[in-house]
């Protein structure tokens, strides 16, 4: 199984868990070099911590800034941030 098939299989699994179905259209066939990374389930935990994204459903109460501070303390990292808002009432 090639990298493309593994990647598509991975995306199909995570979207199926969310109740969605993917319909794939292949524009062109191309090989992806492993020099540019690996699939998420093939990464080690250290790579997930250093280069990963945490998908977080922030509870009401703490601010986005507080949650980022908690993440930095929990994983003992210096740099972390958030993209967009973490406020539950904003869509």
Arithmetic mean pLDDT: 79
Principal-axis shape equals extended
The percentage of residues in β strands lies in under 5%
> In whole angstroms, how far apart are the ends?
39 Å
The count of strands amounts to 0
The helix/strand series, from N terminus to C terminus, equals HHH
Low-confidence stretches: none
Structural class: mainly alpha
| Structural domains: how many | 2
Q: What percent of residues adopt helix (DSSP H or I)?
A: 25-40%
Q: Helix count?
A: 3
Give a structural overview:
- The chain has helices at about 5-15, 45-50, 65-75.
- The model has no long low-confidence stretch (mean pLDDT about 80).
- It has two domains: about 1-40, no CATH class; about 45-90, no CATH class.
- About 35% of the residues lie in helices and about 0% in strands.
- The protein has about 90 residues and is mainly α.
- The protein is extended, with a radius of gyration of 17 Å.
Please provide a brief summary of the model.
This protein is mainly α.
From the structure above, extract its key features:
91 residues, mainly alpha, 37% helix
């Amino acid at each position: 199984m090639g990298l493309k098939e593994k990647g598509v299989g991975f995306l199909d699994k995570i979207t199926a868990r969310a109740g969605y179905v993917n319909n794939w259209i292949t524009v062109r066939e191309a090989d992806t070099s492993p020099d540019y990374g690996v699939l998420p389930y093939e990464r080690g935990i250290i790579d997930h911590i250093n280069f990963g994204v945490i998908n977080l459903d922030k509870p009401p109460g703490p601010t986005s800034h507080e949650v980022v501070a908690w993440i930095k303390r929990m994983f003992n990292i210096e740099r972390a941030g958030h993209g967009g808002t973490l406020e539950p009432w904003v869509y």
